[in-house]
Specification:
204 residues; alpha/beta; Maf protein; seven-stranded mixed sheet; 25% strand; nucleotide metabolism; hydrolase; EC 3.6.1.9; ITPase-like_fam; cytoplasm
Length: 204
């Protein structure tokens, strides 16, 4: 019989369809099931336009966790969200390659923040929520460099806020990165594992 790090009777329920977040949890040895929360993120954002980027990320992660936990109150549920913050302005995923080019043209030569929020629901209620931040300095890039990057990276950039993925060609865009890699990927693992451990959900 294989030993398990996870102590709850059912697998961790991830309120996200993100394959990256699921892969991070599985690589850490946790059994994971996923369920899409089915919430309208832009409508939630519009409800409180005065929220700062970190507050917005926390509120969206919480809404995701609680939406899934309402249907599965007996499960441990994790919701996550990530917000790109350029001097207080929130960026969303680009709608098309033209939008991606515009985002990169605005981010180039500047430092932006990625706020990754996580919410944990236990017994159908919010048990914890936190935000971790990474800062990324993008190299100065002219239009030709941006076009070359988009030609290489292709349509996959549309699946990521900021139009880049550091685990792919997007790494070439940056001069300096400050922050944990899992925070940049959208699920800060060390603080999440610490919180699960504090609730006696991990074997050690």
């Amino acid at each position: 019989m294989t030993a398990s790090l996870w102590r709850a009777p059912a697998p961790l329920l991830l309120a996200s369809a993100s394959p990256t977040r699921r892969a991070l949890l599985e690589a850490a040895g946790l059994p994971v099931e996923t369920r899409s929360p089915g919430i309208d993120e832009r409508a939630l954002e519009a409800e409180r336009p005065g929220d700062g980027p970190q507050d917005l990320a926390r509120r969206l992660a919480t809404a995701k966790a609680l939406a899934v936990a309402a249907a599965s109150p007996d499960r441990v549920v994790v919701g996550a969200d990530q917000v790109l913050d350029l001097d207080g302005e929130v960026f969303h995923k680009p709608a098309d390659l033209r939008g991606a080019r515009d985002h990169l043209a605005r981010l180039q030569g500047r430092t932006h923040a990625l706020h990754a929020a996580v919410a944990v629901a236990v017994g159908g209620r919010l048990a914890d929520a936190f935000v971790e931040t990474a800062r990324l300095a993008m190299r100065p890039l002219d239009g030709a460099a941006i076009d070359t990057y988009l030609a290489v990276a292709g349509a996959r950039v549309l699946g990521s806020v900021g139009a880049y993925q550091l685990e792919g060609p997007g790494i070439h865009l940056f001069a300096r990165i400050e922050g944990d890699h899992t925070t940049i990927l959208g699920l800060p693992l060390l603080p999440l594992l610490a919180r699960l451990r504090a609730r006696d959900l991990l074997a050690f």
